[in-house]
Amino acid sequence: MKIGVLTSGGDCPGLNAVIRGAVLKGTEAYDMEFVGIRDGWKGLVEADFFPLTRRDVKGLSKVGGTILGTSRTNPYEGVRGGAENIAKTLYGHKLDGIIAIGGEGTLAAAQRLNNDGIPVLGVPKTIDNDLRATDYSFGFDTAVNIATDAMDRLRTTGDSHQRCMVAEVMGRHVGWIALHSGMAAGAHIICIPEVPLSLDEITEHVLAAAERGRAPLVVVAEGFKLKGQDEAYSDKGLDAFNRPRLGGISEVLAPLIEQATGIETRSTVLGHIQRGGAPSGFDRVLATRLGLHAADAVVDGAWGQMVAMQGTEIVRVPFSEALGELHSVPLSRYEEAAALFG
């Protein structure tokens, strides 16, 4: 059996560990052959393949990024795109199927291709932790650790100047990174996409912290909306899937907070630093387990499904269970954190 492996969408700590797990288990336990597909769906459409052997994946569990490269290409676009052309490419290179490692956009494309007759198995990847049917996705823990460390640093400089610091983290539609890192760093208010807040509600907590002699820390997810705001802040155009490129809401909030409170306020957008570097120990283990189980699923012919973590077990779920509705922060979890605000 010959299987292509691709990584698509935003890069993420742990991608290489998945690749390593799948290749080691597949080659050693099942005598499978693997082919690396460069730059996500783009490489599949363009038939940009290379052999992926045990030797090629040695020592990868601790390495950030992806040795395969990635992109946000839509596999149905372009003269060589579409299921019919991709099926011809797979046949010509004697590939029996694809392991697609990616987030919501990647898995939606994988589902569509699978429905059109292309054998695809999914591995969930998103630092936002926004995919249903998996309790945690690899990369999330690393992103939280990076964001927490950055906020700890922001707090020391905020304390030195008695400034309000606004830290912006990733989170297009869900606020898991903001919630976890904000709680870990002792934020005085956490702003997430699931819970719109007014400027008055934010400044109330900022002032309460300042009155206790603290330098306020505000954590905001990039997809947060103020009450009355219809869309998340975006001034960076659209991505390949015609979604707004988010980022910059902290730079909008900071001057508003300063104007309303009289407290000098600074904003920091953590951005892609959350995606970079070596994965945490938790993410290395989770990503490796997902890769191992992906190889098992391929042998079992579990196409049209993804491997996922539920509790402490790795299970298989149909793409349909993972897509359509996001894994958002429940109000009860936000209310837990809100008890610590101010």
From TrEMBL:
Quaternary state and partners of this protein?
Homodimer or homotetramer.
Name of the protein this chain belongs to: ATP-dependent 6-phosphofructokinase
What reaction(s) does this enzyme catalyze?
A: beta-D-fructose 6-phosphate + ATP = beta-D-fructose 1,6-bisphosphate + ADP + H(+)
**Entry's transmembrane regions:** none
Enumerate the cofactors the protein uses: Mg(2+)
Gene name tied to this protein: pfkA
Residues the record lists as binding Mg(2+) = E104
Q: What are the record keywords, sorted?
A: ATP-binding, Cytoplasm, Glycolysis, Kinase, Magnesium, Metal-binding, Nucleotide-binding, Transferase
Q: Describe which pathway this protein belongs to, using the record's wording.
A: Carbohydrate degradation; glycolysis; D-glyceraldehyde 3-phosphate and glycerone phosphate from D-glucose: step 3/4
Per the record, the domain of life is Bacteria
Which compartment or compartments is the protein found in?
A: Cytoplasm
* Record: active site: D128
Which GO terms are recorded in the biological process aspect for this UniProt protein?
canonical glycolysis; fructose 1,6-bisphosphate metabolic process; fructose 6-phosphate metabolic process
What does the record give as EC number? 2.7.1.11
State the similarity comment.
Belongs to the phosphofructokinase type A (PFKA) family. Mixed-substrate PFK group III subfamily.
On whether Kinase is a keyword of this UniProt record, the answer is yes
What does the entry list as the binding residues for ATP? G10, R72, T73, G103, E104, G105, T106
For this UniProt entry, the molecular function terms from Gene Ontology, in alphabetical order, are: 6-phosphofructokinase activity; AMP binding; ATP binding; diphosphate-fructose-6-phosphate 1-phosphotransferase activity; fructose-6-phosphate binding; identical protein binding; metal ion binding; monosaccharide binding
> What positions does the entry give for substrate binding?
T126, I127, D128, R163, M170, G171, R172, E222, R266, H272, I273, Q274, R275
Q: Which GO terms describe its cellular component?
A: 6-phosphofructokinase complex
Check the record and name the InterPro entries matching this protein: ATP_PFK, ATP_PFK_prok-type, Phosphofructokinase_CS, Phosphofructokinase_dom, Phosphofructokinase_III, PKF_sf
